[in-house]
Design goal:
Blueprint: E1 4-9, H1 13-28, E2 35-40, H2 87-93, E3 96-99, E4 102-105, H3 120-137, E5 142-147, E6 151-156, E7 159-163, E8 168-170, E9 173-176, H4 187-199, E10 207-209, E11 226-230, H5 234-243, E12 250-254, E13 257-261, E14 268-272, H6 300-312, H7 320-341, H8 354-364, H9 367-370, H10 375-395, H11 401-407, H12 413-420, H13 427-444, H14 450-461, E15 465-467, E16 474-478, E17 483-490, E18 493-499, E19 501-504, H15 519-525, E20 549-551, E21 557-563, H16 586-603, H17 610-620
Parallel strand pairs: 1-2, 1-9, 2-5, 9-21, 10-19, 11-14, 11-19, 14-15
Antiparallel strand pairs: 3-4, 6-7, 7-8, 12-13, 16-17, 17-18, 20-21
Helix pairs in contact: 1-3, 1-16, 6-12, 7-11, 10-14
């Protein structure tokens, strides 16, 4: 068979997973044809958004010891050691040491441990090195060519990827791995930007930053500005870190926590969101690198059994609130009681007590923060909430019953995927998951490292950070003031906080028709792909079948085009997590499934087209 040309659009971690498995397959079977991989991305190969030159203040939100880019040495046994270093092991080998809150390649300091959250810039270095290691191990039958430009279109007759620089890459197999996208401005955002344009002459500090990444965009904010940050999640923590410690401020240890020392370059930062609830800190990990809560109730077999009963009753799809959420709560209550009693309790007769149910209700909805009489009361309650939460986080995700309960959700992904993926829920339930449940779990389970909340408390006490609004806070564009105003109704009164800069601190899902880049729109317009829809609801992403083949406009699978990673978040669930040592990884499993399907399609007689297409390209260019 002739050499196969595989084009991968997007050079992030998912592309690396694919290349690693492809190299392993080619090494394991000399009978397979040679492969040329065309890696198409303007950035560093396989680093994706984790560029090495970003601010060192931006941390990964996963323990470095729980990140690896390498498959298990025994691919049939996920618990076998990874075939390459974890993020932590790599950092140690590179000579990185911890100096307070910084990490440098220098003598002295402290050794990086299993509980370190390392900067995302270092993750970018790790990903680049992992790519080099994979290439060093690759057989001679595989070649990787990196095209540092952007793919803007794809044609099938002939098969070509059209690049921004004018080149066209012939392909036999095509993989879309573009990850996150930046959305075109919505009508509301255009209205905000128009407000800024009209009023900048009256308020030169007036700015709207709809996407804070890269955080170099925040450099235009001056120390005299009042910055309104819309969103309280991990993106908001990045904005806060860049505008405080990133501008020369510092934190010092005190007997009661941290104290912030101003540099004088910080603006005033005011926070709000739809509910204006603070995120809980992650508990200190006491489960080891590969440990976790073992799902007792929300399991894949359990979901399959519910689905079978539902189908027998004439309902093909599940209702999340009725069928799934009670099992999540039950697993949380089970983890809570095990931690409280410091023993593994009997599963068979387990029923949450009214007290345990009330505790989970409060975790989901802290009513004391949602029913305040005003901003002053909200601020004091937020400070107490953060302090109490930090105390639980310090106890750890095993010893603290509260953190054991919230951390259990991390280990329910298999059951959640079984329920959600490929339109497994009713459209109304799918909307609830995307718009309510996922933000909820981000707040209670996937929050920041505990130090970030200790820093947030110090910044509040220093007067640098404060809350701008409470539950139901909304933005008003004040033409008279030429400023943004956050309004919140507390009972019968309304409170307002004005600001000069509005930063939207949210990361949006992949919406192919709204992407500022033309690739996904062109794929849809050509009928090569279609947005995923569950009934009349479009959560995110391009549609794929269970083999990860992109589905065409008519619903049929493409013979030679696949999608992987965040671009498929919609038909899939929780595609952004990186692989973890000693644990089954859906990301690595997806890469293996895709590569195996790709190679099988050629073994079954699909002839490579790239050589003929390349001849056409050369002929058109007058080159022989």
């Amino acid at each position: 068979m002739s050499e196969i040309s595989v084009a991968i659009i997007g050079a992030g971690s998912r592309a690396l997973n694919v290349i690693e498995h492809l190299a392993w397959r080619l090494s394991s079977d000399p009978a397979l044809p040679g492969v040329v991989v065309h890696l198409i991305d303007p950035g560093e190969p396989c680093a994706g958004v984790h560029v090495a030159n970003q601010s060192s203040q931006l941390l990964t939100n996963t323990l470095a010891s729980q990140v690896t880019m390498f498959s298990p040495t025994n691919r049939l046994e996920p618990k076998s050691p990874p075939s390459g270093p974890s993020f932590t092991e790599w950092a140690r080998r590179q000579g990185y040491r911890r100096f307070g809150t910084e990490y440098r390649q220098a003598a002295g300091g402290e050794e990086i441990g299993e509980l370190d959250y390392l900067p995302r810039a270092m993750l970018g270095e790790y990903l680049r090195d992992a790519f080099r290691m994979v290439l060093q191990r690759a057989p001679k039958t595989m070649t990787v060519k990196h095209h540092r430009t952007t793919a803007i279109d794809v044609s099938e007759h002939p098969r070509r990827v059209h690049l921004e620089n004018g080149d066209r890459i012939p392909w036999d197999a095509l993989i879309i791995a573009t990850g996150h996208c930046e959305l075109q401005p919505s009508p509301e955002e255009r209205k905000i930007q128009s407000f800024v344009t009209r009023n900048r002459s009256r308020n030169s500090r007036l700015r709207y930053i709809g996407n804070p990444y890269p955080t170099s965009r925040l450099a235009e904010i001056s120390r005299s500005d009042v910055v309104l940050v819309q969103g309280l999640g991990l993106t908001a923590y990045d904005v806060i870190a860049d505008l405080t410690a990133g501008r020369g401020g510092g934190f010092v240890e005190t007997g009661g926590g941290l104290r912030y020392i101003r540099s004088g370059e910080e603006p005033l930062i005011r926070l709000f969101s739809r509910q204006s609830l603070p995120y809980g800190a992650r508990g200190v990990n006491q489960k080891g690198v590969d440990g976790g809560h073992v799902a007792q109730f929300l399991t894949r077999p359990g979901v399959d059994a519910i689905r079978a009963r539902s189908a027998a009753g004439g309902m093909a799809k599940l209702d999340f609130l009725t069928d799934i959420l009670p099992l999540i709560r039950k697993d949380m209550a089970f983890a809570y009681r095990c931690a409280e009693q410091r023993r593994k309790i009997d599963v068979e007769d387990f029923r949450p007590t009214p007290t345990e149910d009330a505790i989970i209700d409060r975790i989901f909805e802290p009513k004391e923060l949602l029913s305040c009489g005003g901003l002053s009361e909200l601020r004091s309650r937020v400070v107490k909430y953060l302090r109490d939460d930090l105390a639980e986080a310090v106890r750890g995700n095993v010893d603290s019953p509260l953190k054991a309960a919230t951390d259990a959700i991390r280990d329910l992904r298999d059951g959640l995927s079984a329920a959600i993926e490929f339109g497994g829920l009713t459209p109304e339930s799918h909307r609830y998951v995307v718009e309510v449940f996922v933000p909820l779990t981000n707040r209670i389970t996937f929050g920041p490292p505990l130090r970030r909340n200790a820093e947030l408390l110090a910044l509040i006490e220093a007067g640098v950070v404060d809350w701008a609004g409470g539950a139901g806070a909304r933005i008003r564009l004040d033409e008279g003031l030429a400023r943004f105003v956050v309004q919140t109704t507390f009972g019968s009164k309304e409170e307002c906080v004005a600001g000069d800069v509005l930063v939207t601190a949210r990361v949006f899902g992949h919406r192919p028709l709204e992407d500022v880049r033309p690739l996904s729109r062109n794929l849809v317009e050509r009928g090569i792909a279609r947005p995923f829809c569950n009934g009349n609801y479009h959560p995110h992403g391009l549609d794929v079948d269970r083999g990860l083949r992109l589905l065409r406009a008519d619903g049929s699978p493409n013979r030679s085009i696949w999608g992987i990673g965040f671009v498929t978040e919609g038909p899939r669930f929780h595609t952004h997590a990186l692989p973890r040592p000693g644990r089954r990884s859906s990301q690595l499993a997806d890469a293996a499934r895709l590569v195996d399907d790709l190679l099988a399609s050629f073994a079954s007689g699909a002839a490579p087209h790239a050589a003929a297409a390349q001849a056409e390209v050369l002929a058109e260019e007058g080159v022989r």
